[in-house]
Amino acid sequence: MALDLDFVRAQFPAFEQAGLKDQAFFENAGGSYTCRQVIHRLTRFYTERKVQPEHPFEVSQLGAAEMNEARVRLSAILDVKPEELSFGPSTTQNTYVLAEAFGQWLGQGDAIIVTNQDHEANSGPWRRLADRGIEVREWRVDPETGHLDTNTLEALIDDKVKLLCFPHCSNVVGEINPVAEICAMAKAAGVYTCVDGVSYAPHGFPNVDQLGADVYLFSSYKTFGPHQGIMVIREGLGFTLPNQGHYFNEGSLYKRFTPAGPDHAQVAASAGMADYVDDLCAHHGFDGAPAARGAFAHDLMRAHETELLQPLLDYVRDKNSVRLIGPSDAAQKAATVAMIGQKPGAELAADLAPLGVMAGGGDFYGVRCMEGMGLDPDHGALRVSFVHYTSRQEVEKLITALDRVL
Fold first, then answer.
1. What is the CATH number of domain 42-274?
2. Which of 5, 22, 322, 353 has a Cα-to-Cα distance from 78 of 20 to 30 A?
C-alpha cells in the first residue's frame, strides 16, 4: 500500500507555516517536525492540567492518567511491558544514568564492548567505566565503508564481557545494523545489549521484543514528539542493576533509572505519538493490536522513504566531487545521507540554505566514527536526512540544489 502523503503532511502544522512553505527540510536526523496530535496534547496539558499529578482532585487525576496513557500505549507499540518503558530528559541523560548503574554492578575483570560507529551518547558514558577498572573493548567500523562486521564482534566476545553497546544505525553512516542477529549472538554468550535507536526510530518504531535488546533507547523529539528520551529496559536486567532513583521508588521499574522528576506535560504529550500511529493506520485501512499497528506504520514509512532515498544515493554515489559515507543501497540504509565534499560540511549546508534546503554540516557527535574512517571531524560532513513526510518534489529540489553547491 502506498503512503498517502497528503494525509501525512496534513498531520504536521509545520507544513502550513508561511515561513516554511518554500523550505525543504533535510535535517530530520537532528529532530523532526512535531505532529499535531502531540501539539494538541501538550497545549491541553499546559492550559487545562498543569498541576501536580496524582492528587485526589479531578484535574490532577486527568494529568496523571494521561502520563500513564503515554507509557502504556507506546510500550504496546514497541511490544514491551508498560513498566519497562521510562521517560527521561534526553537519551544522553538516560544513558549516563544507565552507565552509572552498570558501573556500580560490574566488577574488576569485567569487560564491555562499545563501537566507534555510535553517537557519543552511547559511547562516552560507557568508555568512562574504564576509570573504575572495567575493560572497554572497541568494535571498530571498516575504515572504507563504515560497516560493523559481526565476524569482528565475535572475536571480541569472551566470558569477561558483560555488556555490548551498539547503534541500530549510525547518524553518520546510516547503515541499518542487524540488531536481532547481534542481540542473539550476545545473548548466547550471556552478554546484555544496549541498542541506540535514536537514528532508526524516526523511520518507524521497532518491535523491541522481536529485536531481543535488553535496553533500547531513542528520542521522542526525533519521532514527531516532545523533547524526551525514551528508554526500554527489560525487567530481568532492570531489577538486576542497582536502583538509581529515590530509595522508596526502588520497586518501580520505570522509576529506578530516572532520578529526576518527570516532565509531566511532555510525558503526557508523548501519547500523541501513539495517536498519530493509530490515525495513520486507520486512514490506510489497517486495524489490529498496537504492536501490529506499529509494524504496519513502520513498513508504510519505510517503503516510502526507501523509494525516495535510492535516487538520492545514486546521485551522491556518482558525484565525483564528494564521498558518500555508508552504503549506496537504500534497502540497507536509513534516510540519512552524509557526504564529504571539498568544502567543510557546515559551509556546504550554508550554501544550500539560500536555495531553500535546510540541512546540517559537522561531525554530528560522530567524531569517533569519522576518525575511524580516516575523515577529519573538523572538516565535517554535509548531512541530508528525511523521514516519511518528505515528498518526491523535495528530494528533487535537494538534488538540484546539491548540483549547484557541489
1. 3.40.640.10
2. 5
